[in-house]
Amino acid sequence: MGIRIVIADEHLIFSEALSKCFESVPGFEVVGAVGERSGVIPAASTGGAAVLVASEALIGQPWGLADEMRRRVPSCGIALIASRPNKALASRALEAGVLSVVPKEASLPQLIKAIRGVAAGARTISPDLLGPPEHVSMARTLNDRELEILRSTVTGASLKEISRELYLAPGTVRNLASSAIRKLTARNRFDAARIAREHGWI
């Protein structure tokens, strides 16, 4: 029996083009091509898919859809196509039940190999993306005050409001926020709070 595949990408033309490519791959059978998140689970369940090939935009952050796929269609493995995969993304994807993370610039043979691996229930992922995310070791150095500031940042509080809330001088809050940003290699305070929240540190 062939590998039944559903392709999901926000650009339907990409899904349809990939579907055409797979027609010439022995043992591959595309049973659905969808362009919206709402169509992913129905296509995978009704088509009896063994593998969902999905773009990061449709299955990725937030990872609720991947978690739901694991619950509702447990027989269907997920191969994620990511534009700029990194260790943090790969770590969270694997936690959500994704079995393969394939860079968007990968060749078709690489994607085909990944799909075969997912169909067999195996993780097929570049060794460069395995191991603890770069942020994890940095997060261990965050102190309690820095975590409190990031926790307040998630609520949308300004530096002045955080200063009042934590009974700290505004300059101290700015310094602590800058320290957290540096440790997490974040773009700004809000990006640092996002990183911390996604990893469950706050």
Automatic annotation (TrEMBL):
Pfam families: GerE (PF00196)
InterPro entries in the cross-refs: CheY-like_superfamily, EvgA-like, Sig_transdc_resp-reg_C-effctor, Sig_transdc_resp-reg_receiver, Tscrpt_reg_LuxR_C, WH-like_DNA-bd_sf
GO MF, one example: DNA binding
Domain annotation Response regulatory: ranges: 4-119
GO BP terms in the entry: phosphorelay signal transduction system; regulation of DNA-templated transcription
Domain (HTH luxR-type): residue spans on this chain: 135-200
Matching Gene3D superfamilies: 3.40.50.2300, Winged helix-like DNA-binding domain superfamily/Winged helix DNA-binding domain (1.10.10.10)
Lineage top rank: taxon: Bacteria
UniProt cross-references to SMART domains, sorted A to Z: HTH_LUXR
DNA-binding as UniProt keyword: yes
Keywords: DNA-binding
SUPFAM superfamilies assigned: C-terminal effector domain of the bipartite response regulators, CheY-like
Official protein name in the record: Response regulator transcription factor
